[in-house]
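Chapter summary example.
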Amino acid sequence: MDFGVMIFPTDSTPSPTELGRAAEDMGFESLWFPEHSHIPTSRETPWGGVKGAAPLPDWYWKTLDAFVALSAVAAVTSNLKLGTGITLVAQRDPIWLAKEVASLDVISGGRVLFGIGYGWNKEELASHGVAYNERRELLRERILMMKSLWMDEVSQYKGERIALEPSWAYPKPVQKPHPPIIMGGAAAPKTIADMVEFCDGWMPLATRHDIAGRLDEVRSAVASAGRDINSFDITAYSAKAEPELIEKLIGLDVNRIVFNLPQKSPEEANSRLADLSALIKRF
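The structure predicted for these 283 residues follows.
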């Protein structure tokens, strides 16, 4: 079992470099940063797309760019894995994104965990020219194009929405064939189909998604596609630091548990990191 931590890095939380050094020194396997390009002030979409949700916290629009922040972490650590939790692929240019992921993998010596998701904020998607009901297919095609950019000497792709003429694109990632692609979200049928087709793992929210109830279905779908379920990782994301929950997740054979750090001062966040470090030593 591996353990990681996540936080929205802002100008009021620990710096990425400070947090990265501390997380590695305290025995964590990975550090995860989410992303949002911006949050439109209209706030028409509730938090997480859930009706009746609480007001959206300001760190959603104050967070640093995940790849810039993780590059800083890479420079001051040696073994800590660098996770995106999650990258909003439908909002990004896939050619540039492929280069960013590959560059970070090269700089870090092969430590990237590429967490992806469809996105929930309709207004944010719209600012990038993406209709909410098109985001899933856009993500799929962009990931398939990115795989060619990572794996092929001459990359090319032709889908229904995007295309790439034969092109050279470097660097190639250190990890082969590419960094693990881990899908964040609930395991609905379409999401499971996408995970089976082009992902290397599933990253449900431990506090919100039905991990125990859907895990067998996910693993069965992976196996039915002729893929090795032992190489398909399960990451329980945003988990509560409760021994009973940790024991339950261990019993489900998940591969990784990621805890939230508080969106507070460096002192408070570092104190929580130390508490979590003491907790994981029990497991």
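To summarize the output: The first strand starts at residue 2 and ends at 6.
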